[in-house]
Task: structure prediction
Amino acid sequence: MSEAPLPVTPASPRRPRVGYAMAAAGATLWAINGTVSKVILASGVSSLRLAQVRMTGALVGFVLVLLLASPERLRVRLRELPFLAIFGIGGLAFVQWFYFLSIHRLAIGIALLIEYVAPLLVALWARYVFHEHVRRRIWVALALALAGLGLIVDVRHGGTISTGGIAFALGAAAAYTFYILLAEHGVGDRDALSLLAWGFGFGALFWCFVAPWWSFPARRVGADVSLLGHLSAHHLPVWALMLFVIVIGTIVPFFLIVSALRHLPATRVGIIAMLEPVAATIVAWAWLDESLSATQLVGAAIVLAAIVLAQTAR
Result:
């Protein structure tokens, strides 16, 4: 930690197409990560422990990359620490914690639908707190996207509705909104990698208090598990699947999403991230042989149309 000035990187011009590609790629990787996580959870690893492994592993990855490439980017001013702690705990850690709490009480589809109220909350925050102009087309796109998500997750057949589950899912939506808004602010002061390294650092520290490492079920990590569905004949050790979750399902997509905020406002990044449930439904159909009805296909088309509409709002 230091109070000395940090190296300033010349501001790069905004390139919206690069931002769109980054956000879409990040959402797609998150979708694939969901199916891989489902395989891990089926092996007996709890959702809390998987979240802990995900955050701690990502922390190690981000720090190693920075130490090898540019260690001076890890320097931090004392006055930055409160912001980084709030970003890491209130954003990165809480969004996972509330989400896992909600899916213990709700069908995953309903929990995911409620969480994706977040882009609407981002737009409301931009309009009424930051007093930014949000075009009418954005509001129409958000309404279409939420309607499409409702068709994808098929709320009517989603199972029993739990008041506590809904409350936790709304908490996940609030934390996701918090994360996007803080990340948009954070990338104005430091690069995406160091922002994420410090954020995941505080998040991993938080998980140490919630679930101490000395009680971690280490024996499960070495077990071989079936990949389920169409790949059920194939097996991989749990540690290999966890490595995928850490690198491909966390480090890469979080870097892409946060980097996209250098080229696009948080409102648009949030809408593009709605590709995640669309892609997750397709991945689950192709891998796990989960049903993909005509209604879900219509919902996916509506979400994609909403994203295109949002991007035309210059």
About this structure: Residues 1-10 have pLDDT under 50 and may be disordered. Residues 36 and 241 are 7 Å apart (CA to CA).
